[in-house]
Specification:
By secondary structure, this protein is α+β, with helices and mostly antiparallel strands. Helix content is 50%, strand content 18%. The chain contains 17 helices and 16 strands. Helix 1 runs antiparallel to helix 10 and helix 13 runs antiparallel to helix 14.
């Protein structure tokens, strides 16, 4: 199925059909069934609002755990603080922030008070009152009957809108003894918002809040209802326990639900005439809605056509693109929107792919030519090996072990250098460096080196000649210019997702200007390469091969202080290297 057809079908399924279904529902329910559905919707609305109100009450009740689990508060209520200085410190450090959190965390909290049962200090500060003052805000029988698992809600209906307060005892760590009572007073706006939500759908409704003993705690109504009508509706609702009913010769629709936490029953009364008046007032709005739907459908069709046309043309062009026709970008109208952005990036991608294909072919040709020239200029390696081995045997026969060892190390260096393998392991790289250093130690008697290994890294795959250029750079440019003891340290380590190889020396160091240029060259921000002597492999070459092989943020980094030495680090990203999993690192 084409995209344009999908968009049209989706518009019909998601917009047209739901709209027509809703319109049919409104006009087809003008009978007793519609009244029942209307009343059921009212019931669901009032129950949902009651659930939301109950959830808010649960959220407020959860504040109790903050104080029950506050060690400083429990220790204070137990009287553990004998020193006033410790008490004041605990109050400011632990208790005050907990009290402030209740005000900041819930805008419905109007006041929070703790009544210590045994402790008589801090009764004059905010948040604490004497234990005997509980008798003024809650019945003694109520707060004495409270258990550890549940608190008590109280309702003060003296004002125009009822005010709620939550009481809960605070216990010691083992809940074997109560230490005081927590009181959380709720803002009057809590009930006001709930009542406003009930009246938002039915502005002329009547709302009653009835307590368990049948008293009307709150009522919101106009003057069209007599008190006898209200008493009759209240009695019928409480007596029958019905959530929905019709009274006054089926002219009044009554919905009710309970608030178990508060011990209240909410009763909503709506006039039946209001329902039909609402429908008559909305008749022209419904007609206008159909006209608007038709207009939007036309505009949507025009918009979809303009959008899908360019996409279809682009998809047809993409089907014609093949490996030998990459240099033919899309030439249609692009535009400045997201589709135009897609077309421009597609053309850029095609040009880039064509450029990369040509570059890869050119690189392959150059590589083959270089290999051919190298083979022509290369001395037979076996002849060199045999010559060096003969020199070593003659030196050893003449008792010159130093020359023999040097010839042996040089032979191994040549074998490693002339090897045709592209990749190796860090262990082989380290062995090659050791042979290289053994030759330099013969030439530089005061050269010492130390190697710190991370065994899990030594089997890791890596490109050849990434370590020797770093060591050679330290010897030639750092240690060779130093008089006295020369020291070289090579450290292998794992830091997070990277393998770190550091080559540090105590040589002459690098000046600030040269170090800045070196970092720019290694980062690719400046033209030029840093070439080592002897291997012919530059540091930039090492950096580029490391980035290509390991990916990520891999590369070569330098830090140096003139006259104190230089640290050159290889940073190798492990996740890009399939041979360097976590299990292979000795962890």
């Amino acid at each position: 199925m084409r995209m344009s057809i999908k968009m049209i079908v989706g518009y019909i399924l998601l917009i047209i059909i739901p709209f027509l279904t809703f319109a049919y529902f409104v006009y087809s329910q003008m009978n007793d069934k519609f009244i029942a559905q209307y009343q059921l919707a009212n019931q669901q609305n009032i129950e949902q609002l009651a659930v939301n109100l109950d959830a808010s009450l649960v959220k407020i009740e959860s504040l109790y755990s903050i104080y029950q689990n506050n060690n400083a508060l429990i220790e204070f209520l137990r009287g553990d603080y004998t020193n006033d200085r410790d008490l004041i410190y605990a109050y400011l450090k632990e208790i005050v922030p907990a009290i402030s959190f209740s005000y900041l965390g819930d805008k419905l909290v109007r006041n929070l008070t703790i009544y210590p049962k045994y402790e008589e200090r801090l009764l004059n500060v905010t948040g604490f009152k004497a234990y005997h003052e509980l008798e003024d805000v809650i019945k003694t029988s109520d707060w004495k009957a409270m258990g550890p698992k549940k608190g008590i809600w109280t309702i003060d209906s003296i004002g125009q809108v009822p005010t709620l307060a939550y009481f809960h005892k605070i216990y010691n760590d083992s809940y074997s003894n109560d230490l005081g009572v927590l009181q959380i007073t709720i803002q009057p706006i809590f009930f006001e918002e709930f009542l406003d939500q009930l009246r938002s759908l039915h502005p002329n409704n009547v709302i009653l809040l009835v307590s368990q003993d049948g008293n009307i705690v709150y009522q919101k109504m106009d003057n069209t209802f007599s008190r006898n009508q209200l008493m009759e509706i209240k009695s019928s609702t409480l007596a029958n326990g019905s959530k929905t009913l019709m009274t006054d010769r089926n002219q009044l629709l009554v919905n009710s639900t309970g608030l178990s936490r508060l011990g209240l029953t909410i009763i909503e009364i709506n006039k039946k005439d209001a329902m039909f008046t609402l429908l008559r007032h909305k008749k022209w709005w419904i007609a206008g809605g159909f006209a608007l739907l038709a207009l939007l459908t036309l505009l949507y069709y025009i918009f979809v056509s303009s959008l899908t046309k360019r996409l279809l043309l682009l998809s047809r062009h993409m089907r014609r693109v093949e490996a030998d026709s990459l240099n033919h970008p899309y030439t249609g109208h692009a535009g400045k929107d997201e589709v135009g952005f897609l077309i421009l990036n597609y053309n850029a991608m095609i040009n880039r792919v064509d450029e990369l294909v040509n570059r890869v072919q050119k690189v392959e040709l150059l590589k083959k030519e270089a290999e051919f020239q190298m083979l022509q200029a290369q001395i037979q390696p076996h002849f060199l090996y045999n010559t060096l081995e003969t020199m070593r045997m003659l030196a050893r026969a003449n008792g010159d072990s130093t020359v023999a060892d040097m010839a042996y190390s040089l032979g191994d260096l040549l074998r490693y250098s002339l090897s045709k393998q592209d990749d190796t392991t860090l262990q082989d790289e380290l062995n090659n460096v050791k042979r290289y250093l053994s030759i330099h130690q013969i030439r530089m008697r005061d050269l010492e080196y130390e190697i710190s290994l991370e065994e899990g890294l030594m089997t890791m795959k890596c490109p050849r000649f990434i370590l020797q250029p770093l060591v050679e750079n330290s010897i030639i440019h750092g240690l060779s210019k130093r008089r006295g003891a020369k020291r070289l340290d090579i450290r292998f380590a794992i830091e997070q997702d990277y393998a770190i190889i550091e080559v540090s020396d105590n040589g002459s160091g690098i000046s600030v200007e040269k170090l800045s240029i070196l970092r720019q060259v290694l980062a690719g921000e400046a033209v030029g390469g840093m070439q080592t002597q002897g291997t012919g492999i530059g540091l930039t070459n090492v950096a580029e091969r490391v980035k290509a092989f390991f990916g990520g943020n891999s590369g070569v980094m330098f830090s140096s202080l003139p006259g104190e030495g230089t640290v050159c680090s290889l940073r190798l990203y492990l996740k890009e290297n399939g041979d360097a999993e976590v299990n292979d690192r000795g962890r």
